[in-house]
Amino acid sequence: MEAYTGFAAVYDIFMDNVPYEEWGEYIHSLLKDRGIEDGILLDLGCGTGTMTEKLADYGYDMIGVDNSEDMLELAMEKRMESGKDILYLLQDMREFELYGTVRAIVSVCDSVNYITEPEELEEVFRLVNNYLDPKGVFLFDFNTVYKYKEVMGDTVIAEDRGECSFIWDNFYYEEERINEYDLTLFIQEDGSEDLYRRYQETHYQRGYTLEEMKELVERSGLVFEAAYDAVTHEEPTEKSERIYIVARESGK
User: Fold this and answer.
1) CB–CB of 131/98 below 8 Å?
2) How many CA atoms lie within 13 A of 18 on its CB side?
3) In this structure, are residues 184 and 166 in contact, taking their beta carbons and an 8 Å threshold?
C-alpha cells in the first residue's frame, strides 16, 4: 500500500513529540551562517508542511515537494490557515522539476531514507545540484545504520490517543540494511464515539553510513561541506542516530 495514505490524516497527532521549533531554528542557523537569509527555498519531502511553514516564518519564499497527495492536502490546509504564500507540488523527489533555480534546498525528517536504492538517491542529489543557484546550499538529514540496528531494531510500539491509535511493528534487515515498519491504524469515524476505521501501511527506509552519503553527494556533482551530529555543531560519532549534511552546488 502507498505510504502516508491513512496515516496522513493523523500524522501530526503522532508526531507532536518532534521538536519542530528546535529543528527549524537549527536549520535556519545553518542557512544563516552561510549567508542565506532570504530568497526561494525548497522543502524536499515536505509532508504535511509543518517545517515548510516554520521556514516561511523566517522570511523564505517556500516551495514544498512531496509525493503523497494526502500529506499535501493537509499542508495546503495549514497554508489556508496561516495565509502564507507557499507553493506545493505533488512530485516524486527522484524526478522533481522546478520552474527555475533556488537559493537552498532542505530535506529533513529522514525523507532521503525512503530512497532505498543508492543509485536513485544519487539521482536525487543530481537534481538538487541542477536546481540550486550557483554555490547554493543543500541541507539534509538522515537516520543512520546505528539508529535502525541498535535503537529501533525489531520492536513493537503502540500508542492510543483516543480519537486514533496505532501499532508499529518494526523490523530491521541487517544484510540489506532495510528498515521495515508495518503500521496498523485505528482512526475514529467522524460523528461516532465507538466506530473506528482500520488502516494498514508498510513503510521502508534504508540505513546509510556517513561515508556512503559523502560518496553519493560527491558523485552527484555536489560539493560536500560539513556533517553534524543532530542538532549540534559537533562532528558525528559512531552512535549518532541522525546526521545533518551540508553540501554546495557545483558546476551544472
Assistant:
1) yes
2) 13
3) yes
Q: pLDDT-based confidence at 2, cuts 50/70/90?
A: very low
Three-class HEC string of the chain: CCCCCCHHHHHHHHCCCCCHHHHHHHHHHHHHHCCCCCCEEEEECCCCCHHHHHHHHCCCEEEEEECCHHHHHHHHHHHHHHCCCCEEEECCHHHCCCCCCEEEEEECCCHHHHCCCHHHHHHHHHHHHHHEEEEEEEEEEEEEHHHHHHHHCCCEEEEECCCEEEEEEEEEECCCCEEEEEEEEEEECCCCCCCEEEEEEEEEEECECHHHHHHHHHHCCCEEEEEEECCCCCCCCCCCCEEEEEEECCCC
Q: What's the pTM?
A: 0.92
- Nearest CA to 105 among 90, 119, 84, 126? 126
pLDDT of residue 252: 62
Has residue 18 got a pLDDT over 90? Answer: no
Q: What is the pLDDT of residues 117-151, one digit of tens each?
A: 999 999 999 999 999 999 999 999 999 999 999 99
171-204: per-residue pLDDT in tens? 999 999 999 999 888 888 876 777 888 888 899 9
